[in-house]
Design brief:
The protein has 284 residues and is an alpha+beta fold. It has one domain: Clam (outer membrane lipoprotein receptor (LolB), chain A). Helix content is 28%, strand content 37%. It has a 12-stranded mixed beta sheet with strand order 7-8-9-10-11-1-2-3-4-5-6-12. The N and C termini lie far apart (127 Å). InterPro entries: LolA/LolB/LppX.
Length: 284
């Protein structure tokens, strides 16, 4: 009798284990929860607007421009001048004033991507009022001032900002506006830095966008006002530059297609700062 009870208990346990294994085998594996899909960007791509504007700038080739804003360590800028667009380049001549600790006259020429600056705050010597500034120069003046001058250069040429990255630019918003009494449309534009770093055709562009990505700037913001002909009436940009601080400039355009003269300063009046310059003295 005890042996019979033992066999019964073993049989019952075996049946229970078999039932359990059978139930487990019948269960279907639960799929992993799907990762949330990246939400598509609802903002329209600015490619069509920018391509049309860039084509019109290239076709007319010249404009007169007023520039206002901050050149970082150079001070507040208020200047008037002209721009000539030649292929991918933009030549520039400006006359105006800067204000930091005091107000000083300022003249700038940029031809063939080489800058020339005339201000009492940065004169090589008494006979050479113009300071030559090259983006790849090894002299002190170029190293110190070329980033700010490059931003000044880009601020009069929307092509330098958007060419090649039109597909990576989104229209954050647009609205009717006026510029100097002229009807315009204001576009708030955002360049997606990660995408732009992949598609920008120019190496310096790619490096600039990649630095923005590494600094946590997912987007760079700009404002562009277009007149009824689709030409820039105003362009505003702000950039942080290590050597110069925050450079925030607004260019206002007029007289598209008007002939302009942009001259180089006389070579005898141009110098450089090979080393740290002496403290600039105010003019007497």
């Amino acid at each position: 009798m005890p042996r019979a009870r033992t066999r019964t208990a073993v049989l019952s346990a075996g049946l229970a284990l078999a039932a359990t294994l059978s139930a487990c085998a019948g269960e279907q594996p639960q799929p992993h929860a799907a990762l949330p899909m990246a939400r598509p960007d609802p903002r329209p791509v600015a490619e069509a607007v920018l391509a049309d504007t860039i084509n019109k700038i290239n076709a007319l080739g010249t404009a007169r421009a007023t520039m206002t804003g901050s050149l970082g360590m150079v001070g507040q800028l208020n200047a008037d001048g002209a721009v000539r667009y030649r292929g991918p380049q933009a030549d520039l001549a400006l006359d105006g004033k800067t204000r930091n600790a005091r107000t000083e006259k300022l003249a700038v020429s940029i031809v063939d991507e080489v800058g020339y600056l005339n201000t009492p705050l940065a004169r090589p010597d008494a006979t050479k009022p113009w300071l030559k500034i090259s983006h790849d120069g090894s002299d002190f003046g170029s190293k110190l001032l070329s980033p700010a001058l490059a931003q000044l250069h880009e601020s009069v040429d929307p092509r330098a900002t958007f060419s090649g990255v039109e597909q990576a630019t989104r229209i954050q918003g647009s609205a009717p506006d006026t510029v100097d009494g002229r009807p315009t449309t204001r576009y708030d534009l955002r360049i997606l830095t990660e995408e732009a770093a992949k598609i920008a055709p120019d190496e310096q562009q790619r490096e600039r966008f990649q630095r923005a990505v590494e600094d946590g700037e997912r987007e760079l913001g700009y404002q562009l006002w277009l007149d009824e002909q689709g030409l820039p009436a105003k362009f505003a940009a702000t950039t942080n530059i290590a050597q110069a601080g925050e450079v925030s400039l607004t260019s206002t355009y007029r007289d598209w297609g008007t002939p302009v003269d942009i001259h180089l300063p006389p070579a005898a009046q141009v110098g450089v700062f090979d080393d740290l310059p002496p403290m600039a003295q105010p003019p007497r």
